[in-house]
Amino acid sequence: MKIIDWYILKRYLGTFTVMLLLFIPIGIVVDVSEKINRILENKVPLSSVLAYYLDFTIYFANMLFPILLFLSVIWFTSKLANNTEVIAILSSGISFNRFLRPYIVGATLISLFALLMGLILVPKASVGYNDFKYKYLKRNSEVRETQNVYKQISPDEFIYVSNFNFQSKTGFNFTMEKFKDNKLLYKIRASRITWNPEQKNYTLSSYFKRSIGPMGDQLEKAETKDLKLDFDIEDLTPAVYAAETMTLGELNKFIERETMRGSANINAYLVVKYKKYSVPISTFILTIIAVSVSSMKRRGGMGVNLAVGISLAFTYIFFDKIFGTLAEASTIPPLFAVWFSNISFGILAIILLRNARR
Questions:
Q1: In the chain, N or C terminus with fewer CB closer than 10 Å?
Q2: Residue 174: partners with Cβ closer than 8 Å, 6 or more residues away
Q3: pLDDT tens digits, residue range 285-330?
């Protein structure tokens, strides 16, 4: 790499790092101002708060990754253009494609970083982020977010809970039915089912089991009963929450299992999976758009480039969120929904790049 490549690459990575260091503290301050009363009311330990904001930093940085990258490239490239550095570089005989090379190298480094975050760091941070939120920050009326969960956990087994409490890992009005040859073998009911992580089993309160037999039914009752049941706690949690807290390997196995069960939440799991790959690819697309838009010296200066950049960045995020939500709630293919923003903005990047070359 030549001196000019190192110069641009350092500006690329340096500006992006500065953007992260500027916006993350702002996000933390805003989050603290919203949650400080609840934290003090619940007397949350300082160690838990610090761990939460470490997870929040990773979670927040991953969420704002595309817009921060886009704005950082627009910012320092506009400065290069206003200082006529871009004109000087291109006038020396360097083609626009050659000028773009250090940007692509920088985009490659950041996309690898984003991929590492999405596959390893973000799932772990999501666990701590969501656990803290549901344990300390949600009121009882807000905690029970999962309602009327009905799932087929095997070809002949079905479970149901009316709602699920994240704080206590407890489901309410639990029912489990076992069939064979379309005939009911037994039915289990309980007013409450609680997951015991240490024992890897469930505690059922107001337990009642009715077994259907040829010579008559058998009834079994108990105030509480511990059982090992063939389903996981994720089966009682919201689709996106469960998917966000899994690594890629865990998510692939989970999707395969849920597909066999005929789960209605497959699209939500697939959206989370495909986004792990789409975000790193968006690094290259947004970099090319940002360079193409901001490499020309404009009469309005950096303000015009930033205005255009912010508009495009929020348009990208808007399409990403809208189509992701539609894929979860409708029949739109998740792969198309997740990649729609990259495809449409990829076409825009090609058009803008051709105009910039001229």
A1: C
A2: 159, 160, 161, 188, 189, 190, 191, 192, 193, 204
A3: 888 888 888 877 766 566 677 777 778 777 887 887 788 777 766 6
Look up the pTM and report it.
Answer: 0.70
The predicted pLDDT at position 239 comes to: 55
Q: Which runs of E-coded beta strand occur in 69-217?
A: 146-154, 157-165, 170-180, 183-196, 201-211
Q: What is the pLDDT of residues 4-45, one digit of tens each?
A: 888 888 888 888 888 888 888 888 898 888 888 888 888 888
Question: Could you give phi then psi for residue 205, rounded to 5 degrees?
Answer: -100, 145
Q: Are 226 and 173 in contact (CB under 8 A)?
A: no
Q: Compute the radius of gyration of the chain from its Cα atoms.
A: 26
**Angle between helical axes of 334-357 and 96-116 (0-180°, round to 10):** 160
Cβ-based neighbours of 65, under 8 Å, separated by 6 or more: 114, 117, 279
Tokens representing 179? Answer: 């069939």
Whether the pLDDT of residue 265 is over 80: the answer is no
Q: Are 167 and 134 in contact (CB under 8 A)?
A: yes
DSSP codes joined into one string, 176-209? EEEEETTEEEEEEEEEEEEEETTTTEEEEEEEEE
- Residue 175 pairs in a beta bridge with 160, 189
Beta bridge partners of residue 258, listed in sequence order: none
Cβ atoms of 283 and 111 closer than 8 Å = yes
**Looking at residue 208, what is its pLDDT?**
94
Rounded-to-integer distance, Cα 100 and Cα 186, Å: 67
Residue 183: both structure tokens together: 């005939």
DSSP 29-77: HHHHHHHHHHHHHTT--HHHHHHHHHHHHHHHHHHTHHHHHHHHHHHHH
Residue tagged 């656990």 (tokens): 131
